[in-house]
Each structure stands twice: as structure tokens, then as C-alpha cells.
Design goal:
Largest sheet: 5 strands, mixed
Number of domains: 1
Helix content: 40-55%
CATH topology: Transcription Regulator spoIIAA
Order of helices and strands: EEHEHEHEH
Strand content: 25-35%
Shape: globular
Low-confidence stretches: none
Oligomer: single chain
Length: 114
């Protein structure tokens, strides 16, 4: 099973709800394509909701970092929401926890974009 991605707007923030497994192959490609598509449409405020992501591998982590870089280089912001314990641990082990702004509360995350 790969990752399912749905996008929705909350004010001027685009929330990407991810569910399933963010892993090498089709899942990481579809994640990358989704982010690039949003950025190319001028979306600058992206919130990635990982609450339903059951597993993420090094390729998935790589795509998160790549998405962060892509959005930041376009003058936008990318933040993470609802990390599972496993994803949180992975970000701490890889020292990426300091790179991303991470939220547990969607309303607070939306407000943080200012």
C-alpha cells in the first residue's frame, strides 16, 4: 500500500493530508509531484498532516526534506502536523526535528503562518 494524499485549503494555507506509507517508489514520487504541483500553482503555505502515515522510510524522509527545500526556495513555508510517535522518533534520530516546525494542533499550525 502506498501513500494517499488529499489537499484542502484552510484560509490561505494548503493542508496536505497524507495517509498510508511514505516509502521509496510510487509513494515518494506522488508526494514529490503533489508538493511541486502546489508550489508551481503559487501555494506558499503548506502544512503536511502526517497523522495517518503508518510508516516512513529514508526515501520518505528525503522527500520531506526536498519538499521543505523546494517550498522555502520559493519563499514559502512548509510545516508538519500530527507526527506519529514513529515519525517523530525518526526525525529526532536524523536531527531533522530542528529543521521542521512541528505542530500537534491544526488550528495553532494554521495561525503560525501569520
Amino acid at each position: 500500500m502506498s501513500v494517499r494524499l488529499t489537499t484542502r485549503k484552510v484560509g490561505d494555507v494548503t493542508v496536505v493530508d497524507a495517509a498510508g506509507r511514505l516509502t521509496l517508489g510510487e509513494a515518494s514520487s506522488s508526494f514529490r509531484d503533489t508538493i511541486r504541483g502546489l508550489v508551481s500553482k503559487g501555494e506558499k503555505k503548506l502544512l503536511i498532516n502526517l497523522g495517518e502515515v503508518s510508516y516512513i522510510d529514508s526515501s520518505g524522509i528525503g522527500e520531506l526534506v526536498s519538499a521543505f527545500t523546494t517550498v522555502t526556495n520559493q519563499g514559502g513555508q512548509l510545516k508538519l502536523l500530527n507526527l506519529t510517535k514513529r515519525v517523530q522518533d525518526l526525525l529526532q534520530i536524523t536531527k531533522l526535528y530542528t529543521v521542521f516546525e512541528v505542530f500537534d494542533d491544526e488550528a495553532a499550525a494554521i495561525r503560525s503562518f501569520g
